[in-house]
Write a structure and sequence with these properties.
Elements: E1 4-7, E2 15-17, H1 22-35, H2 40-63, H3 69-72, H4 80-116, H5 121-125, H6 128-148, H7 166-193, H8 196-214, E3 235-238, E4 243-248, H9 250-259, E5 262-266, E6 273-274, E7 279-285, H10 294-307, E8 308-311, H11 322-334, H12 342-359, E9 367-370, E10 376-380, H13 385-399, H14 404-420, H15 424-441, H16 446-468
Helix pairs in contact: 2-6, 4-6, 4-7, 6-7, 8-11, 8-12, 9-10, 11-12, 11-13, 12-13, 12-14, 13-15, 14-15, 14-16, 15-16
InterPro entries: DUF2254_membrane (IPR018723)
Transmembrane segments: 38-56, 86-112, 133-151, 171-191
Protein name: DUF2254 domain-containing protein
Length: 473
Amino acid sequence: MSVKFETDGGPGARGRRGPISSVLKRRQVFVEAVRSRLWPVPTAAVLLAVLAGIGLPELDAALDDRLPPTVAGYLFGGGADAAREVLSVIAGSLITVTALTFSLTLVTLQLASSQYSPRLLRTFAADRVIQRTLALFLATFIYALTVLRTVRSATDGTDGTAFVPQMAVTTAYLLAVASVVALVLFLGHLVRQIRVEAVLEHVRADTCATATRLLPPARRDTPAVPVPAPPPHPHLVEAASSGFLVEIDEHALLTAAEQAEAVVWVDRPVGSPVLAGTPVAFSWSVRPQEPLTEDAAHRLSERVRAALRTGSERTAVQDIGYGLRQLTDVVVRALSPGINDPTTAVHGLISCTAVLADLLDLRLGPYTQCDEHDRVRVVLARPTFAELLELVCTQPRLYGADDPMVLDALLSMLRELAWKAATGEQRTAITDQLDRLREHVTDHDTVTRRHLDHLARQVGEALEGRWAGRRPT
């Protein structure tokens, strides 16, 4: 069966995408789960180190003295006691360095939580440099210990033969050198990573990548897909567990709706908090004269519940607004009396502006999936541009109302967005935020009020110029 995926982003918007398999969705969720934790990469490195520590000495024993002299000259040339000393020093030093690295990582996480936002901990834990550095240190430590057990002197054992795995000890030396280089690079990376500019840029890039992956480009040359009106009494689907809605298996929903000859409407966007036993979706038959039976509605509800996954925290896999929530948290935390850093708040609003500007070119709003006959079968709630703009503007406007820098940044954001706004819905959202910001301009002195009034006029001129098809003078 050929399945068509449609998105409805408002009047004049319609687009097509190929089916997204549930396997791909599960893979994205799994990759995100692994990427956002510190332990998977170091654990895999430790396992590889154990295998290498067992395999390389076996290779040494198999090759014995058959290596060419030019190669053997670069390998470890000491005896058993020297090999033990080298491996012991490497193992002892690396576990100390690992403890230092882990301590610095915890300090960084604590700083990110207290200075920026607790929701940024996931971002720092997903840092690949931190994960790979810990993996290298632990792997070198475990490798050295594993090789150490194979070193034998002539007085050891019963056969009276010495065994020094030259290639294995040389590899341990090279890993130790790589660990020293990695420590220097790690310290430099950590210093850069705790800078607020780097944090904001990372979140901005991650948010834009998520939006580009989930949302199709906005197209104004095709008619909108009409969202069907639900009947007065649809069948309600209750949430199976409490938490945040972190994943929706769109392919499974479409398959269930087609097989039940029904329409499924999930009215909670990804990222919303849900409570077990409360409605999160509803369904009804595509044939008004043949409503769903109780058994059919129950089976469909079970399949819908199975397609909705909740978690204890929001993730960026399918949550379009999560990145903006993180950026706004940084802005609000910077405006708190305990930190009082309006410059950081302005930087955060600039990052929010970049994300919202990219979202102007993508399809937001309700998302519909159609069958091969272009009949809507699934409707998924997704945030509109107005909702995301409200998320960014509300708290900074309230907590930064007394700071001209924050009001300046908010008005500048609206001005830049007004230049790119191409639909009536987008312009209306910008106009609404402009009107609410103007209420706070009157609370400042004459010079500040004159500057903010000038910015507000620029926003209006940008909107009028776009409407009239010309740029304001």
